[in-house]
Amino acid sequence: MNEIGMATTDAELAVEAAITQIPDWHSRKLRYKAVLGGISNTNFRIEVEGDSLSYFLKIPGRGTEMFIDRKAAAAASKQAEIIGIGPRTFDYLAHLDIEIAEFIDGRRPSTHRDFADPQIRRAAVSIYRDFHAAPDLPLTKTVFDMIDEHYAQVEALGGYWPVDHTWLHEQYRQARAAIEASGLDLVPCFNDPMPGNFLIGEDKSIKLIDFEYASNNERLYDLAIWSGEMFFSEAIDREIIEDYFGRYDTGYHARFIVLKALADIKWSTWAMVQNRISTLDFDFYKYGIWKHMRARYIINDPRWPLLLKAL
């Protein structure tokens, strides 16, 4: 681990500048090291002389303020802590919009393979149910708000559009009209189910981390985006719906599939923003192209018009 004064990169310089501002840590030996994971920020583990726990700190990635409300993210993290599904949080650097949380030992980041285990899937459904039942978050941002925001950003940045962008946008517009006509079910949503954001214990219990994209959003979107991220089959989607609601419902399933497509449109467009602004070593262009491709696959299903009518 590095000590203060050993920084060689911009991110390390930034973390040193941040942690040396914390009054509670003055005159104490500080050590830090980068933590792998995430495609928006640079993450660090911090050790403070005399403290029994380590800390997790993220340095916001360049341009992420375009689509992340850091104060709203901190409020969501605090709410997750209060209801027992997230780590302890600390507001030492809240004035810099830098979030610090407890570094959770004894748990590991999940992988896609973990969610092939029905017990882990059920634990995740329970976590989602708990978060959705919590008080409203300070930020309401629906999947439609996110897509529209990213569309405008790609336009402003001169970013990449797929050759069938006009067609994709029309499919999005039709899906949005169908969902809005049926009414949105707004609850606190996680909105970012990358495997590394689920920390799994030896008992297969789960804690969530990284609430940067959390907002009040459509309830089923939160489950649908998780299903898409984990490549679940429709059989597992049915299982998730039954587990979450206590019964399977074809209308919920139709909404689930449509929201999977919208999630891919959201993240494909987000990737094209990141492709223009991010300095992280990640192929956002390839990621976005793949997400566009999967959205097309769902929309080109012969059932698509029937799914929209079923909403």
CATH class placement of the largest domain: Alpha Beta
| Secondary-structure class | alpha+beta
CATH level 4 superfamily of the largest domain: Aminoglycoside phosphotransferase (APH), C-terminal lobe
Mean model confidence by pLDDT: 95
Query: How many structural domains?
Result: 2
Low-confidence stretches: none
Q: Compute the CA-based radius of gyration.
A: 20 Å
CATH fold-level topology of the largest domain: Aminoglycoside 3'-phosphotransferase, Chain: A, domain 2
Straight-line N-to-C gap? 53 Å
CATH architecture of the largest domain: Alpha-Beta Complex
Report the sheet with the most strands, covering strand number, pairing sense and barrel closure: 6 strands, antiparallel
The count of β-strands is 11
> Helix count, per DSSP?
10
Order of helices and strands: EHEEEHEEEHHHEEEEHHHHH
Please estimate the helix content.
40-55%
Give an overview of the whole structure.
- With 311 residues, the protein is of the alpha+beta class.
- It folds into two domains: 2-102, Phosphorylase Kinase, domain 1 (2-Layer Sandwich); 108-309, Aminoglycoside phosphotransferase (APH), C-terminal lobe (Aminoglycoside 3'-phosphotransferase, Chain: A, domain 2, Alpha-Beta Complex), CATH 3.90.1200.10.
- It is built from ten helices and eleven strands.
- The protein has helices at 10-19, 70-82, 118-132, 143-157, 165-182, 219-230, 234-245, 250-277, 284-299, 304-309; strands at residues 2-3, 30-35, 42-48, 55-59, 89-90, 100-102, 108-109, 186-189, 198-200, 206-208, 215-218.
- β9 and β10 (206-208) form a beta hairpin.
- It starts with a strand and ends with a helix.
